[in-house]
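Write out C-alpha cells for Lsr2 protein.
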Amino acid sequence: MATKVIMVDDIDGYDGEDVAKRDFEVAGTTFTMDLGDANHKQLQEILRQLAPYLEKASIVKPAGRSRKSAGDASPRLKGYTNSDVREWAKAEGVEVSLRGKIADDVYDRFIEAHPDAKPGT
C-alpha cells in the first residue's frame, strides 16, 4: 500500500505539486513554511524589499533590569538556597511558587524555623 503526502501552501491553501518546505531568514532568525512557487516568489520579493531597512535598523532590547535565571540565582539567605526555602515550605504546607520570587512572609517563616539562617546582603 502506498501513501501520498499532499503539501498545502500555508498562505492560501494551494495544494499543487510545486508546494515545498521553504526556509528563509529575517534578522538572523531562520523560519520555514510550506509555499508554492508563486507565494515563494512573492516572499523572496518582500524580503528583497525589506533588506535595506533591516541593514539600517538597530535591534531594540527590552527596557528594565536584566532577568536572572530562576532558582538559586540570588538567595536572600546566607547558608541556604532558594531551593532549600522552597523544599521547607512544601514540607510545611506553605504555598510557594516553583519558580520566580519567593514571598517575603515565606522567608520570614523560614528564618523563624531556622535560627541559623542569616539574611544575605
